[in-house]
Amino acid sequence: MRIRPRQQLLDLWQAVLACCYRDEEWSWGGRDGANSISDAEQLLCLLYPATELEAFAVDQPNYMAADTRLALEPFGEETRIGGVLVGLLEDYLQRYTSPEGDPVFAAGSYLHPAEDRPLTAEELELEVVDSYSMSLSLCIAALRFLRGYQRFVSGEVRREARRLSERIPEVIDAVGVRLTAAMAGLVRSFVIHTPEPRSEAGQAILHMINQNHAPDDEVIARLSARLERLRVQAANEVRLSQASEVDVADDRRLFECGWGWGIVRTAEPIDFVPSAVGRLPGHAEPRPYLYFTAVALDGISDLSSQRIRELDLLTDEQRKLADALQLRFELARNYWATVAQFGGGRWPLEDIPWRTSDGEESDYFSLTVTAMLIQDLVYRDSTEDLARTVAVFDQLARRGRITSRLTAGDPAAILHYPGVRLGLSGSEEISGGAALRWHVPDFVTMMLKRCLQAARLRTDVGTRDQLMALAEAAMDHLDRRVLREGPAAGLWDDPVALLGPSVAPGPGPSWFVTERIMECLVIAYDTFREAPLAPSSMVARAIDLMSEADHLLNQEELEVEGADPTPKQAAVNRIRQTLDRARSVLRERPGTAYSLATQALVQLDELAYARQDATR
After folding, report:
1. How far apart, in whole angstroms, are the C-alpha atoms of residue 450 and residue 495?
2. Three-state secondary structure call for residue 25
């Protein structure tokens, strides 16, 4: 399936409004009910493209693109669209703010008990890293929209605009409070885990990284040497909310870092954060989860973008939290990129499936580590070992039945629905029994997202083509899962079309899946805007053709009189313009330069043939 991000994003917007906005009323919730994460995902489907892509911007109605205005037509004329979005933000913030004024990040209906029973009120209030990361992305998008729209309404004289200009500052303040709390939650969910090598967790880590079957002591020494800089940085700089008993500098212990599923039980309070998130006791086991680490890294990427710094959206307290998150971002990204490629032979990443430190194994964990390695390469703008990493993607695409078909009873089916089940160790303190579970059905969207991101790198044509083939295969898979009928038509997710009638999801869209597809389309839009590859071999061939064409053109100009007004002179001038154009695009678009040079050579041969014919 061709990826056409602009049209597909517009189609998604139209489907969102058809599903959620009727009779000027917004309907929250989807297949999994309404909760702080699902409703943020629902709202991000509109706000994220509107603040990431200039073609979808809605904060300046006078400059809104015609197709954007048409897609959002149910909101009313272009001057009303921004006001409706302000109202949706107000509604969301009111729904997820406690009577005491604290932001609420309850995961609610996204949580699942281990046994068949309803969740208790206390369990429904449990907060997870998704709550903080998704709110962080929503708040950043909201601030960017509100600041831009505020400039528009301040210049309007209409009564509705004056009312909006009074409401927007209050919304900005409320968004800022939620952003601060979300950042604090992410800081307090970060964990550094230093297990003893002989412990179960230590043996699980060694099982993955020791691909050459060397003695454990030798592997630990080599790994400690590779991670020495990270250990020193973690020991000296990771202070905020970090438990003091973690001995990260002890190189006789193993070491891993990332995000737990929520605020870890060892997290210290953050004194300068006034909301409850800054001081709530944590329940999460102090061990990184791959899924929640990847989710946190994505949220922090939104926070640390160049545009956020340029717009000066953050307060002093938020900048302090942002610096702490950026440090943790660097540590986690570098750590997982290092262990994924550790050793001199086969990478641990290539030993599929990946085993986590709690002994769990899954192709999904391999994909998550591969995704973090790709994120590291994109962040550093590096193509080092990219082809080898893409080969892992290719293998996972086959194992995950993206490029091959599902069979009856296929164990890969669970990757797509209901998703890999993660046990939230420590939540049994609340449930009083078995740990709660978290389902992650984003195997395909994670692969699509990272393939599109990696395609931005200045790699070779073969690797780029392989990445785009995987991305298109993922889109084919997702297209089979789009809802075709009912009020949610055009949204996701319909696993019945892929897995058969044995699965029975509830009615309505999955905002979890739909929001992630929206993110992929935004990334595709940015990827397609990049200049095409310019292989040196293609540049060299284009230069050879241009050199020949230039020489032949000079010969033709010897045959033309200086003031010759004939068609021959006009033809020579057109050829000269064609070659000038070829030279101007040579380094960015060598294939185009090659084609233009070829065109010029054909035209020159026509002139030469005509002259020979006239001579005869």
Report:
1. 22
2. strand
Q: What SS3 state is found at 396?
A: helix
Nearest CA to 377 among 340, 323, 432, 409? Answer: 340
Chain mean position to CA 193: 26
User: What pLDDT score does 310 carry?
Assistant: 61
Tokens of 85: 């979005």
Is residue 362 within a helix (H) or strand (E), and if so which, with residue range?
strand 361-362
Measured CA to CA, the distance from residue 177 to residue 173 in angstroms comes to 6
Nearest by Cα to 53 from 92, 5, 109, 1: 5
* Helix (H), strand (E) at residue 439: strand 437-440
Interstrand relation of 437-440 and 21-22 (parallel, antiparallel or unpaired): unpaired
118: left (phi over 0), alpha (psi -120 to 50) or beta: beta
> Per the structure block, which two tokens stand in for 330?
């660097």
Alpha helices in 401-510 (DSSP H): 428-431, 443-454, 461-479, 496-499
What pLDDT, on a 0 to 100 scale, did the predictor assign at position 244?
59
Q: In sequence order, what are the residues at sequence separation of 6 or more whose Cβ sits closer than 8 angstroms to the Cβ of residue 579?
A: 546, 549, 550, 553, 596, 597, 600
**Hey, CA dihedral for 3, 464, 524, 446, is it positive or negative?**
positive
CA distances from residue 557 to 495, 565, 579 in whole angstroms, order as listed: 67, 13, 14
Partner residues linked to 329 by β-bridges: none
Rounded-to-integer distance, Cα 603 and Cα 598, Å = 9
Question: b vs e for 439-471, b when ≥16 Cβ sit within 10 Å of the residue's Cβ?
Answer: bbbbbbbbbbbbbbbbbbbebeeebbebbbebb
Report how far residue 200's alpha carbon sits from residue 186's, in angstroms, rounded to the nearest whole number. Answer: 27
Encode pLDDT of 57-108 as tens digits.
999 999 999 999 999 999 999 989 999 999 999 999 999 999 999 999 999 9
In which residue ranges of the chain is pLDDT below 50? none
Nearest-5° angle of CA 264, CA 446, CA 186?
A: 25
- Give the pLDDT of residue 576: 92
Closest CA to 498 of 397, 440, 414, 394: 414
Whether residue 104 contacts residue 96, with contact meaning beta carbons closer than 8 Å, is answered with yes
| Torsion (CA) 142, 144, 146, 152 in degrees, nearest 10 | -150
- Strand ranges (DSSP E) for 7-51? 21-22, 25-26
* Predicted TM-score of the model (pTM): 0.91
Tokens representing 455 are 């395609």
- What crossing angle do the helices spanning 567-584 and 590-615 adopt, rounded to 10°? 160
pLDDT at 559: 77
Torsion sign across C-alpha atoms 523, 525, 531, 536: positive
Whether the Cβ atoms of residue 215 and residue 310 lie closer than 8 Å to each other: no
The count of residues in the chain is 616
Output the pLDDT for position 564.
61
